[in-house]
Write a structure and sequence with these properties.
Helix content is 38%, strand content 22%. With 426 residues, the protein is of the alpha/beta class. The two termini are 36 Å apart. The relative contact order is 0.10.
Length: 426
Amino acid sequence: MSEVIYDPTPEQFGVFWKYVDDPDVTDIDFNGRALWITNLHTGRHKVDEKITDDFLIAFAHNIGNCVNKPFNNANKILEADTKELRISIIHDSAATTGISVCIRKSPPVIRNTISGMIKDKYCPTDILMLLINCVTAGMNFVIGGEPGSGKTEFVKFLMQFIPLEKRVITIEDSLEIHYSEINPEADAVELRVGEDFSYTDAIKACLRQNPMWLLLSEARSVEVTSLIEQWSTGVNGITTIHLDDLRKLPDRIENMMNDVNDASRLENRIYRYVNVGVLIRREKEADGGIRRYIDQMCFYVREEHKNRVYMLVEDGEIISRKIPADIAKRLKLAGIDEFFWCDLDPFGLMDPRNLAKEVHVYGYNFSWKTHLSLIVCSLLGMGAIGVVFHLNAVYFAVTVIAVVVMLPIFVLTMYKRMYEQKRFGD
């Protein structure tokens, strides 16, 4: 398991730092000869940077010193984490092309927003509303896709619709979900697995922790058996998996399970306890930009003693609106009668919790106390103006209401500008 560095500095990261500090950069990879950068908008490209052997050796030893790990011929792999970075370095005695460095960024922000997803045609609006409703109804999700497609970012988007009072336990080897930081008021426990605490150990440990939701960063191996066992007890969950077609998911999970003696029973459990499948695709556009979108969406159900996949989205387009009876029942039990509609302003900014979530998208914290203080100060200021200028009571009341309604928009705009200034200021 990689160790944690709590305070990375520009001095430690040298030439890498400007890419670490760029919010649009997700990956920084040096292959021993050239530096490659992955950007959210422009994709992966090589950059012209002079990186010397002396710098690489100093960088590796700096990281090694921070986590108290050697890096030499006998210890060829060095791994470390910060709160937002995952660092992997391979020694040149193993990497014949030279020291290899990979830095993966995962900041505690939600990059996907409702307005942005609709604008960028991430998925049909009706499907976006249906997926939000499925979270509200407590369904189990498996998010598939190739590496780098944006699976974790979509998980972070979905998890904000989990009610704060429902205990969420996250299980990860590298800290990428950041549930507690993104939802500071939520009841959450974050577990980190390693050599002496496996995914299976973590999932089983959750049994006595009263979870209502279990977020597994990625299903890779036999731990998927324990995950489905948890889901069978009524715990809700979300996980990701490497996949290129949702119809292959049951076979993919069966291949990872450690019990191959009763394939039929295993298959039935998958269809019974995995409810929603989403496949995220990443494509490079003609102008060089990167587009991420929901390529497939489906429901898995076991009905009339048969296992069925109901495909609703294929190639990014809605091909069916048929909701299986069991899924429809669960939605209705959650008080959802219009399956393809929900309030697309769950971030109603008058609610301080929702305003805090939107502000957090730009990397800042905003508490309900600050929100209340701003409202009180605004009302006091308006009251003083009303007294000084002897404003008509009706006009004064209308003005006060307008100020209170517009205040959250003003606050959000302010933080957005601060984010943009920080991004481009230097």
